[in-house]
Amino acid sequence: MVCEVIENYDLKKHSTFKIGGCAKRAFFPETEEEMVQLLTDLKEPVVLGGCSNVLVSDNGIDGDVIITTKMKHFETENNRIKARCGVKVPMLAREAEQKGLSGFEFMIGFPGSVGGAVYMNASAHSQSISDTFKKCCVFDTDNKKLLELNKDEMQFSYRKSVLQTKNYVLLNAEFELIPQAKEEISAIMQRNLEFRKGKQPSLTMPNAGSIFRNPPNDSAGRLLEKAGVKGLKQGGAQVWLGHANFIVNLENAAASDVLKLMNKMYNEVKNKYTIELVPEVKFVGTKTKEEEELWNTLLNQK
Ligand SMILES: Cc1cc2nc3c(=O)[nH]c(=O)nc-3n(C[C@H](O)[C@H](O)[C@H](O)COP(=O)(O)OP(=O)(O)OC[C@H]3O[C@@H](n4cnc5c(N)ncnc54)[C@H](O)[C@@H]3O)c2cc1C
Asked: Average pLDDT of 129-152?
């Protein structure tokens, strides 16, 4: 294999939550060709970008992981930006700003990659990645072939895309942005950054972004706050005092601490409002029995 490989790769260091065990082997492709080779050769590898929306099991991953952070090439032509899956989204936001292109202002404040952002249909400040999305190239790991998908084929909706239902790995994506005065774009980005300062923990308090999805026509943060979960602790994990839909890893939290806390949060909202919150974070890895039970309880409460 041509690309860099690290054995016993510590996912705790890589994840923004700073939680989780090691992966047996981590591969770091730089090009689409290297990625396709890996996806063809490896048995069911887990694909991760910035690891900013996942909780990793304390057992880690008893297998292979492909980490896309070296797939960071992108190019801009007129109002189109084409980026490999590992490009950090704040970097693309800055590129768009420099080129006087609007549509990526919302991406300035979060630590995801293009692959993770498309997978999650990331959004904020009334913009989402699906707004500017034109097409992408994916590898269909079931049928071992490359596909080009346009926007209609992506099945985008709130925090959803076809990448979550089919075994597709995103290799690159192309976006079409709207020309706008650079100063206006910069001002919006600055405003978005300021907004985030008060509303979400910085990465000096390890976290994985919003824990639960917003239920229809409501906000998970509002419901959780009203249910009184702010400050609730479990082991080294705590519901952030600044916003009730974030869990911060205060001190060496275990994945099971986070899962127990999520169950408590879920139950408080269900008891008060009969609303059943759905996790936004993804749980990956070779789960312990306890983790599996806690996660299944969360998913199968209905
Ligand atoms: C402080 C903070 C603030 C955040 N703010 C926001 C916000 O405002 N809006 C928002 O939407 N999200 C937010 N997030 C969550 C997160 O950053 C985004 O969802 C981001 O897009 C995830 O990208 P990632 O590369 O980190 O994905 P990862 O966490 O690495 O992966 C997430 C999922 O995507 C899959 N995946 C990753 N790459 C690929 C690929 N190439 N092909 C197929 N599947 C892939 C993974 O298997 C996994 O299931 C925030 C997170 C943090 C920590």
From this structure: 97
